[in-house]
Amino acid sequence: MILPFLRGLLPPHLAPVTWFLIGINLFVFIVNLPAHLATKSVLDVYVQDEEFMRTQGAVFAQLVRERPDRYSEFIRQLARNALQGDDLSKQLMGGYAARDRLFTESVDTMKFSGDAVALAKWKAEYYDFRDVQAKMPSYKWGLSRGRNGWTNWITYQFAHTGFEHIFWNLAFLLIFGACLEQLVGSSLVTLTYLGAGLAGAATFVLTAGLSYSPLVGASGSLSGLIACVAVFLWKQPARFLYWFLPVQGYWGIREFPAWLMFPVYFVPDLAGHISLIPGVGGVAYSAHLGGALFGLAVGYAIKRGWLVKEEPPAPLEESW
Q: Beta-strand (E) ranges in 150-307?
């Protein structure tokens, strides 16, 4: 594990915009937390209901059979297994159906074959599932092919799905945002955060396919900040915290060239995006890469003098 430490954890008076962005993210998370927990608890009941998920999977498999051109070979094979009665395949297909936009749009109009009683029970429960899902903060604030109004391109950057999600995003925002604010000023941090978020959103919308799962979180924006710092510093030494084993000599803080952040953070994202199975969803690697490209462009523009740096808000030596 290699984590950046850079200039350390700077207090608000040294990085006001970074701390303001952290405050917005925390405010949105706290305000939405009750609704998130309430809707998640209801959806978890359906997800853990094997009969509901198997029936949904069997229904989804029929849609895939009717529209094979819209799905990957992996999903088509899983659908064939489900139609042949494989319960595990039905269960998996039931999970994928909940995130598939075409399935959501087809339930009201398409005629499905099977046990009429089981289908009627499933359909009533599915409508409730869909109504509750639509009320989740991540679906209201997030960005997807089915929900991509201009406000969602901004709001998704401040919405998070859980404590771990927001903790790591804000930790990286503090480390990279504060460092960049000391290097180039508050205005360029704002530009990079929001611009990288928009670039990440654009690449996500273009590559999301039929996924109904929303994009949420500051990861695209953070990728832009990381790339901007890496390009701006490039061969200059940057402090990293490394941890491989709890043994002396295998952990500590060392200085490495700043360009190391590219293979550490973006090669895994590129590999993840290339290996991602279409239609399955998961981590929004494309949003990370889109944000990183924007940050790279900003960092290069700053180094070339096309964007004007500001004076830091206080001497660099002042920190916690």
A: 237-243, 251-257
* Pair of tokens at residue 21: 């962005």
Q: Where are the domains of the chain?
A: 2-37+143-304, 39-141
Residue 67 pLDDT exceeds 80: yes
Please name the residues in contact with 116: beta carbons below 8 A apart, sequence gap of 6 or more. Answer: none
pLDDT category at 318 given cuts 50, 70, 90 is very low
Q: What is the pTM of this model?
A: 0.87
Class of domain 2-37+143-304: mainly alpha
Are the C-beta atoms of residues 60 and 100 closer than 8 Å to each other? Answer: yes
Query: What does the CA dihedral 176, 181, 186, 187 come to, rounded to 10 degrees?
Result: -70
Which residue has better confidence, 41 or 245?
Answer: 41
Structure tokens at 258: 């700043």
CB neighbour burial string for 190-221, b if at least 16 within 10 angstroms, e if fewer? bbbbbbbbbbbbbbbbebbbbbbbbbbbbbbb
